[in-house]
Amino acid sequence: MLKKIISLFIVTSVLMILSGCGSNFEGGKIQNVGMLVDSSIDNQAVAEKGYEGLQNIGEKYEVNVFYEENVTTEQETMEAVEAFVEDGVNLIFGHSNIYGAHFADIASTYPDVHFVYSNGGYVDDNVTSLNFDSHAMSFFAGMVAGKMTESDQIGMISAYEWQPEIEGFYEGVNYQNPSAEVRIEFNSDWNETNSASEIYDDMRDDGVDVFYPTGDAYSAGVIEQAEEDDLYAIGYGSDQSEIAKSTVLTSTVQHVDKLYELVAEEFNEDSLGGSIMTFDFEDELISLGEFSPDVPTYFQNEVKEAVEEYVNNDLLPNQ
């Protein structure tokens, strides 16, 4: 019993201290901004975009920006947030869905700080979830893959089963090329690279000639492997045509940098509420990247027209 009372006293004291740290802000204007990343910002397309957005926010509002890499546990999140708050940060981006639960647990401790994270259902008065509607973008990627496969064997290397990219890509391939088979394997982690490479090798050996790796950490590696094997891939997160211009048929681009800047603007105008926000092509926060010169021009135009139709009428070609 004594041990439980002491533990409770310690926890209560810490929360009181942390609560005090979160109340030193004036109004809702941006003071300083922080970003947490569950891996590294180097060589990861989406994380690099997030970091770019962070830097742009700092320049626009003339504030300091901070970031912390390899933050994965709730304890590490709490420690990083506390350090941010001590540096005057009142807008924090968590660049992963893992931060949803972490932020929801500590949000009330920092009522003057707004927490923003990606792909989740946790919200609070000062917690916002940002979601890209990735079904449509992957549908169009599937169309391209279905058009360009010669073996009718297409491989998708996903991180998790819940990713909307899976259904969208499958539907796009099936619409464009009903004869094609889509093989889907799960990497089980955004940041795992070794198993993604092994999955690629297995798929290649089974005749797959177009790959769609939907993970930030491993998409570039898969593209490089496809280039070596003279096969095709779809880029993910950013326009990855710069890795291998002919190999990358197109990319499904999520403009995280622009989204972070938009969120910062809403926060600075005191109009950012605790909610789940979703973005798509019509918001100009999702787009397709540059097409490989191997993709016939007429088909590039066909896909672009289909995207325009979707933006105007919210209808995919199979609807």
Description:
It is a single chain. The chain has 319 residues and is an alpha/beta fold. The protein folds into two domains: 13-132 and 256-283, Response regulator (Rossmann fold, 3-Layer(aba) Sandwich); 134-254 and 289-313, 3-Layer(aba) Sandwich (Rossmann fold). Helix content is 43%, strand content 20%. It contains ten helices and twelve strands. It has helices at residues 2-21, 45-61, 74-86, 99-106, 134-148, 164-176, 194-205, 219-228, 256-268, 297-313, and strands at residues 32-36, 65-68, 89-94, 114-118, 127-132, 153-158, 181-186, 210-214, 232-237, 248-254, 276-279, 286-288. A six-stranded parallel β-sheet has the order 2-1-3-4-5-11, with helices on both faces. A six-stranded mixed β-sheet has the order 7-6-8-9-10-12, with helices on both faces. β3, α4 and β4 form a beta-alpha-beta unit. It is globular.
Based on the model shown, name its key terms.
6-stranded mixed beta sheet, globular, Rossmann fold, alpha/beta, 6-stranded parallel beta sheet, disordered N terminus, 319 residues, 2 domains
